[in-house]
Amino acid sequence: SVKREFARLETSINEDLKSSSQSISNAIREQNGRLTGMIRTSVSTAMAWVFLCFALLIGILSGIIWFQGTIITSRLSEMDSYSQQLASLKAKSGAGVTIYSDDTRRNTYLVVLPKQAHGVETYTSTTDNTVVKYTAK
Asked: What global pTM score does this model have?
């Protein structure tokens, strides 16, 4: 009878251990599921932020490049305008007048008059500029 009682207690304890083991396994599985879900949510949120920041960065850089392009375009057209004005001034400045910059000295320029130039006069204007007057045949 004691043996039967021990067998019954052993069976009862084994069933309780199996039940406890099953409930612990279920709790661990549930916790793993929750943690996996949290990790997936965190990774998804982080990836969304990375994508958003990347898209924002691309947008900002595109705007900067566009803005610099408009500045470059306007400056190129301004330079073209100056080139046209310079060509016009060279055409009107008297046949054969050439201006060179002296490479050996800084801010030194040479004005070369044409061979036909005669009656060369130099004087100072009212604005203190040196003026060279000549007549070309």
From this structure: 0.47
Model confidence pLDDT, tens digit, residues 92-102: 655 677 777 88
Phi, psi of 19 (to 5 degrees): -65, -45
Q: Which residues on adjacent β-strands are paired with residue 131?
A: 123
Per the structure block, which two tokens stand in for 113?
């008059």
The residue type found at 137 is K
Strand partners, 111: 99
| Residues contacting 115, CB < 8 A, separation 6+ | 96
- pLDDT at residue 134 greater than cutoff 70: yes
- Give the C-alpha separation, 24 to 104, whole Å: 93
Query: SS3 of 20, please?
Result: helix
For the chain, helix, strand, coil in percent to 5 are: 65, 15, 15
User: How far, in Å, CA of 77 to CA of 79, rounded?
Assistant: 5
CB neighbour list of residue 97: distance below 8 Å, 6 or more residues apart: 90, 111, 112, 113, 114
Residue entry with tokens 């009107």? 92
Q: Residue 75 corresponds to which tokens in the numbers above? A: 């400056």
